[in-house]
Design a protein that fits this description.
This protein is of the alpha/beta class. The chain has a single domain, classed as Divalent-metal-dependent TIM barrel enzymes (TIM Barrel, Alpha-Beta Barrel). It has ten helices and eight strands. The chain has helices at residues 25-34, 47-50, 54-59, 77-86, 102-119, 136-145, 156-161, 170-181, 206-224, 257-277, and strands at 3-9, 39-43, 63-68, 90-93, 123-126, 151-153, 183-188, 232-237. It has an eight-stranded parallel β-barrel, surrounded by five helices.
């Protein structure tokens, strides 16, 4: 049976306390383990830093998602080498390259994948603002040109970046569905048309929570339709610090972001369980 592994973002553990202190990586790893997460998403482009925590993460049996931020084609080579060295689940990149249009992006995307294949690494391109996938419509065209391009879907960036409003129009639903079909992993937060991250426990944000829950279910269904029996899908809870989190007048989060992440994890786990239970008998 395919599995869902829910990870916690190391970046999202910044400024969770009012002293503003970032816990040591070893403490973050222990907290993630003790909370029952399946793994961690963390930066994976500096070997000296990775070497300080990778053994502890492995000892905990963590699924590891590495993150890198290439500024050119060659920028993925060192992260891919590190990913291969440590045998992590996958490497995700926020491609900090901004080609003129979709056709200009194709050779860059293909070169990144070629380098990843040379290293035996699964490389996913994240949908993210201010990156190669910034624009929803251009990204959709990229997928027309490179139909097998593996994505990591973070739909929050399109909701806020494209100012998608409720109810979502059919043209946006179609474009989001196109992203979902290529999604091989997920980053999760809830956005609105004006804010990349809203508090999931506020009643005023419930329509946005429902929208994302619906999209995640559709994305899981799409992945399950073609997933091999022993495949693993990852979903990273990525409730980031300010300016992602909306601060109150004192400059701190208006809710407990760690607790919100645990609630998000439970929501996602429930969506996954429903998707598994609803699979056709031929896929079970």
């Amino acid at each position: 049976m395919p599995e869902l592994k829910i990870l916690q973002s190391h970046w999202a553990m910044q400024r969770m306390t009012r002293d503003g202190r970032m816990p040591a990586m070893s403490d973050c790893l222990m907290r993630i383990r003790d909370a029952g997460y399946d793994g961690i998403s963390a930066h994976f482009h500096d070997e000296a830093i990775v070497d300080t925590w990778i053994d502890q993460a492995r000892d905990y049996g963590f699924v590891i998602e590495g993150q890198a931020y290439p500024k050119d084609v060659e920028g993925v080579r060192e992260p891919c080498r590190l990913a291969a060295k440590h045998g992590i689940h996958h490497l995700v990149i926020q491609g900090q390259v901004r080609p003129y249009n979709a056709r200009a992006a194709v050779p860059i995307l293909q070169a990144w994948q070629a380098i990843a294949r040379d290293h035996g690494v699964t490389l996913l391109v994240e949908t993210h603002r201010s990156n190669i996938t910034c624009d929803l419509w251009t990204t959709r065209e990229m997928l027309d040109l490179v139909p097998d391009l593996p994505l990591l879907a973070d739909l929050s960036h399109y909701v806020s970046g494209q100012e998608i409003v409720l109810p979502v129009g059919p043209e946006y639903e179609e474009a989001i569905s196109r992203i979902m079909r290529n999604a091989k992993a997920w980053h999760g937060r809830v956005a609105s048309s004006q804010q990349v991250q809203v508090e999931i426990g506020f009643a005023v944000h419930r329509p946005w929570v429902d929208l994302f829950a619906n999209w995640w279910r559709k994305g899981f269904d799409a992945w399950l339709a073609t997933a091999p029996p022993d495949d693993v899908l990852t979903f990273t809870c990525e409730l980031g610090p300010w300016p992602y989190a909306i601060p109150g007048p004192d400059g701190f989060d208006m809710t407990d972001r760690w607790q919100d992440a645990l609630v998000l994890r439970d929501i996602v786990r429930g969506i996954w369980n429903d998707a598994i239970a609803s699979r056709p008998a031929s896929q079970s």
